[in-house]
C-alpha cells in the first residue's frame, strides 16, 4: 500500500495527474456548494451532458485532442443548453426541471451520435474521445493539467473574492437586488463558473458523472457545519480527496475509468458524513434522541416517586 | 444631518404614481398612486391576492412594472437606495441555509460595504446592537433554522434596522409570530417613528390597525383609498376594499373588523 503510494508520487507523470485531479475536485467542490445551496443540482447534470456534443464538434473542427479546445466547446454547448432551458420554461408551461430533463437528454443524444460517428471515421478511432464518457485521467498530458490548475485557481479565487455577494444572492436574491447588487449578473457569473468547472472536469471524470463532483461533496459538507465558509472548505476538501482517489486508483492500470472511482469516493465521503457528522449526522441524532428519552423517563419516574398519587392516576 | 432633515421636510419619503404591474396578461396592481407622509407608520391593507406584496416589490424594483413612477425623497430609487430598508416576507428565503442570526443581520450592511470588502468589527458591533434591540442578542450565533418563526422575523427586522435607512418597507412582519414578537415589533416601529422614519407595513389583522398605525392604504388591485386612519379606516371603505369577504363584529362596544384570511 505504502509502496504503491510512494510509486505514485515518484512517477512524475502520475504526480501531475494526481495534482490535477485533486485541484479539480477542490474547485468543483467549492463552486458546487453554491449550486447545491441554490437547489440547482440538476443544472450541473444538464451542463455536463450538454458538453458532449460541444466536445465532439470541437474535435471535428480541429481534428486534435486538446483540453483547452474541448473546454471551449463544452462551455459553448453548456451555454446553449442553459439558453434552451430558459427559453422552454419561459415560452411554454413546462417547469424548469422538466425542461432540463428534456435538454439534457437531447444534447446527450446528439453527442452520442456524433461520438459514434467520430469513432468510426479514420482519425477518430485513436482519438480516445470515447474516454470522455467516463473519464480517463491517465490520458491527460501536462498541458491538460495546467488547464485544470488554472480553472481551479479561477473557481476558488472567485468564490473567495465574491464570497459575500454569492452568499447573499444565494440566500436572499430579493434583498440583494434591493440593496443594489446586480443579481442577475452575479447569477450568471455563478452559472458560468459552474459551467467552467463541469467543462474542465469532463476529461478526468467524464460527462456522465462529472456533476457528482459538484454536488456530492457539497451535500456531504453540509452535514458538518452551520457556517458557509466552513462548508466551502469541507466541500473543497471532500472534492479534492475524491479527485485524488479517482486518479490514484485509475492509474493502477487496466482500464479502470477515473469517473466512477471518483464518484464512488465522493459518495463514500457523503455516506460517512451522513452517518457520523456531529449534530446533523444520523448516529448523533439517534443518540441525542435516545438520551432525551431516557432523561425524560428518569425525571418522570422521579416525579411520580415524589407524588405517588399522580403516578397511580396515570395508570 | 440638519440640512438633510430640513431637505426631507419638504419632500415626501415616497411618492408612487400610476403604478401598474402584471405577471401574465391581467394587471394585478392597476394605476396606483399615493404619497406617504414623513415620520408615520402606514399600513397597506387589502384581501389576499390584492397585490400588496406586488406593489411593494414593484416600488423597490424587484418586479418590473409596466407603468408607473416611484420617487423616494424626491429622487429615483437607484439614487436613494441607501435610505431604504426592506423586510421581505419570511417565507421568501430558505431558512436551512448555513448561516447564523448575526451573519444575516450583517447582510444589512452589505449595501454600505461595497464589493469584495468583508464586514469587520464595526459591522459586527452594529449587528449585535440591532439584535439587542429586537431582543435576540442571546441567539446571535444560533443557526437560523433553529429559530422559531417569530425569532426569524425578528432577525429579518434586525437586518433592516442594520441598514440604517429612513424609509422602511415591511411585508407582513406580524404574520405567524407569537404575541411577544408582535409586541417587540410594535415597540420597534414606534421607536422608528420617533426617530422620524417612515414605515410602510403590509398588514392583514384589521383589528390592530387603529392601535398600531397612523395612516392606511386600502388596496384591492386598485387603490381604494389612502389617508389617516381616523378618516380612511371606515366600514364603508373597508367594505369597498374587501367586497363581501368582510364581517363586521361588534364586541364590547368597540367595533372589530375581521378580514377573511
Ligand atoms: N410571481 C408571480 N407570478 C405570477 N403571478 C403572481 C406572482 N406573484 C403574485 N402573483 C399573483 O398576483 C396577485 C397578487 O399577489 P400578491 O401581490 O402576492 O398579493 P398579496 O400580497 O396582496 O396577497 C395574486 O393573484 C397572485 O396570484
Ligand atoms: Mg403578500
Automatic annotation (TrEMBL), chain A:
<dbReference type="Pfam" id="PF00950">
    <property type="entry name" value="ABC-3"/>
</dbReference>
<feature type="transmembrane region" description="Helical">
    <location>
        <begin position="175"/>
        <end position="194"/>
    </location>
</feature>
<feature type="transmembrane region" description="Helical">
    <location>
        <begin position="42"/>
        <end position="61"/>
    </location>
</feature>
<feature type="transmembrane region" description="Helical">
    <location>
        <begin position="67"/>
        <end position="88"/>
    </location>
</feature>
<feature type="transmembrane region" description="Helical">
    <location>
        <begin position="100"/>
        <end position="118"/>
    </location>
</feature>
<dbReference type="InterPro" id="IPR001626">
    <property type="entry name" value="ABC_TroCD"/>
</dbReference>
<keyword id="KW-0813">Transport</keyword>
<keyword id="KW-0472">Membrane</keyword>
<feature type="transmembrane region" description="Helical">
    <location>
        <begin position="228"/>
        <end position="249"/>
    </location>
</feature>
<protein>
    <recommendedName>
        <fullName>Manganese ABC transporter</fullName>
    </recommendedName>
</protein>
<feature type="transmembrane region" description="Helical">
    <location>
        <begin position="16"/>
        <end position="37"/>
    </location>
</feature>
<dbReference type="InterPro" id="IPR037294">
    <property type="entry name" value="ABC_BtuC-like"/>
</dbReference>
<feature type="transmembrane region" description="Helical">
    <location>
        <begin position="200"/>
        <end position="221"/>
    </location>
</feature>
<feature type="transmembrane region" description="Helical">
    <location>
        <begin position="261"/>
        <end position="283"/>
    </location>
</feature>
<feature type="transmembrane region" description="Helical">
    <location>
        <begin position="138"/>
        <end position="163"/>
    </location>
</feature>
<keyword id="KW-0812">Transmembrane</keyword>
<keyword id="KW-1003">Cell membrane</keyword>
<comment type="similarity">
    <text>Belongs to the ABC-3 integral membrane protein family.</text>
</comment>
<keyword id="KW-1133">Transmembrane helix</keyword>
Automatic annotation (TrEMBL), chain B:
<protein>
    <submittedName>
        <fullName>Manganese transport system ATP-binding protein MntB</fullName>
    </submittedName>
</protein>
<feature type="domain" description="ABC transporter">
    <location>
        <begin position="14"/>
        <end position="246"/>
    </location>
</feature>
<keyword id="KW-0547">Nucleotide-binding</keyword>
<dbReference type="InterPro" id="IPR003593">
    <property type="entry name" value="AAA+_ATPase"/>
</dbReference>
<keyword id="KW-0067">ATP-binding</keyword>
<dbReference type="InterPro" id="IPR050153">
    <property type="entry name" value="Metal_Ion_Import_ABC"/>
</dbReference>
<dbReference type="Pfam" id="PF00005">
    <property type="entry name" value="ABC_tran"/>
</dbReference>
<dbReference type="InterPro" id="IPR027417">
    <property type="entry name" value="P-loop_NTPase"/>
</dbReference>
<dbReference type="InterPro" id="IPR003439">
    <property type="entry name" value="ABC_transporter-like_ATP-bd"/>
</dbReference>
<dbReference type="GO" id="GO:0005524">
    <property type="term" value="F:ATP binding"/>
</dbReference>
<comment type="similarity">
    <text>Belongs to the ABC transporter superfamily.</text>
</comment>
<dbReference type="InterPro" id="IPR017871">
    <property type="entry name" value="ABC_transporter-like_CS"/>
</dbReference>
<keyword id="KW-0813">Transport</keyword>
Amino acid at each position: 500500500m505504502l509502496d504503491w503510494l510512494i510509486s505514485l508520487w515518484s512517477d512524475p507523470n502520475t504526480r501531475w495527474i494526481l495534482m490535477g485531479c485533486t485541484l479539480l475536485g477542490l474547485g468543483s467542490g467549492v463552486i458546487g456548494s453554491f449550486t447545491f445551496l441554490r437547489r440547482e443540482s440538476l443544472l450541473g447534470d444538464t451542463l455536463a451532458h450538454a458538453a458532449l456534443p460541444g466536445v465532439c464538434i470541437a474535435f471535428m473542427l480541429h481534428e486534435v485532442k486538446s483540453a483547452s479546445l474541448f473546454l471551449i466547446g463544452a462551455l459553448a454547448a453548456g451555454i446553449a443548453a442553459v439558453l434552451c432551458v430558459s427559453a422552454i420554461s419561459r415560452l411554454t408551461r413546462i417547469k424548469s426541471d422538466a425542461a432540463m430533463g428534456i435538454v439534457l437528454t437531447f444534447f446527450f443524444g446528439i453527442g452520442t451520435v456524433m461520438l459514434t460517428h467520430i469513432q468510426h471515421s479514420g482519425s477518430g478511432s485513436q482519438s480516445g474521445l470515447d474516454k470522455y464518457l467516463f473519464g480517463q485521467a491517465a490520458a491527460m498530458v501536462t498541458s491538460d493539467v495546467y488547464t485544470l490548475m488554472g480553472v481551479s485557481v479561477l473557481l476558488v479565487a472567485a468564490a473567495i473574492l465574491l464570497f459575500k455577494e454569492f452568499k447573499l444572492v444565494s440566500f436572499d436574491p430579493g434583498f440583494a437586488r434591493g440593496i443594489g447588487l446586480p443579481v442577475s449578473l452575479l447569477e450568471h457569473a455563478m452559472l458560468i463558473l459552474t459551467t467552467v468547472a463541469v467543462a474542465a472536469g469532463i476529461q478526468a471524470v467524464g460527462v456522465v458523472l462529472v456533476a457528482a463532483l459538484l454536488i456530492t461533496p457539497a451535500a456531504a459538507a453540509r452535514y458538518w457545519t452551520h457556517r458557509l465558509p466552513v462548508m466551502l472548505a469541507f466541500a473543497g476538501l471532500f472534492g479534492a480527496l475524491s479527485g485524488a482517489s479517482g486518479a490514484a486508483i485509475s492509474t493502477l492500470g487496466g482500464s479502470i475509468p477515473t469517473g466512477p472511482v471518483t464518484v464512488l469516493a465522493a459518495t463514500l465521503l457523503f455516506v460517512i458524513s451522513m452517518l457520523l457528522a456531529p449534530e446533523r449526522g444520523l448516529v448523533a441524532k439517534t443518540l441525542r434522541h435516545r438520551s432525551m428519552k431516557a432523561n425524560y423517563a428518569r425525571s418522570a419516574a422521579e416525579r411520580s416517586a415524589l407524588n405517588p398519587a399522580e403516578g397511580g392516576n396515570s395508570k | 444631518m440638519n440640512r438633510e432633515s430640513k431637505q426631507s421636510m419638504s419632500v415626501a419619503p415616497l411618492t408612487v404614481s400610476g403604478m401598474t404591474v402584471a405577471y401574465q396578461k391581467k394587471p394585478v396592481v392597476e394605476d396606483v398612486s399615493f404619497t406617504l407622509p414623513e415620520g408615520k407608520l402606514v399600513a397597506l391593507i387589502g384581501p389576499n391576492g390584492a397585490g400588496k406584496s406586488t406593489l411593494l416589490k414593484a416600488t423597490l424594483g424587484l418586479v418590473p412594472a409596466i407603468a408607473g413612477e416611484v420617487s423616494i425623497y424626491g429622487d429615483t430609487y437607484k439614487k436613494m437606495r441607501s435610505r431604504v430598508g426592506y423586510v421581505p416576507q419570511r417565507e421568501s428565503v430558505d431558512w436551512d441555509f448555513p448561516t447564523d442570526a448575526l451573519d444575516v443581520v450583517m447582510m444589512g450592511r452589505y449595501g454600505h460595504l461595497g464589493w469584495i470588502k468583508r464586514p469587520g468589527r464595526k459591522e459586527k458591533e452594529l449587528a449585535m446592537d440591532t439584535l439587542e434591540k429586537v431582543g435576540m442578542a442571546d441567539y446571535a450565533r444560533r443557526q437560523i433554522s433553529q429559530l422559531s418563526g417569530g425569532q426569524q422575523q425578528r432577525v429579518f427586522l434586525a437586518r433592516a434596522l442594520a441598514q440604517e435607512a429612513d424609509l422602511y418597507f415591511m411585508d407582513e412582519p406580524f404574520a405567524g409570530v407569537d404575541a411577544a414578537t408582535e409586541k417587540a415589533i410594535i415597540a420597534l416601529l414606534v421607536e422608528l417613528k420617533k426617530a422620524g422614519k417612515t414605515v410602510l407595513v403590509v398588514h392583514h389583522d384589521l383589528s390592530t390597525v387603529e392601535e398600531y398605525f397612523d395612516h392606511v392604504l386600502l388596496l384591492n388591485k386598485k387603490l381604494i383609498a389612502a389617508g389617516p386612519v381616523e378618516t380612511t379606516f371606515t366600514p364603508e371603505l373597508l367594505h369597498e376594499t374587501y367586497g363581501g369577504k368582510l364581517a363586521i363584529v361588534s364586541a364590547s362596544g368597540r367595533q372589530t373588523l375581521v378580514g377573511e384570511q
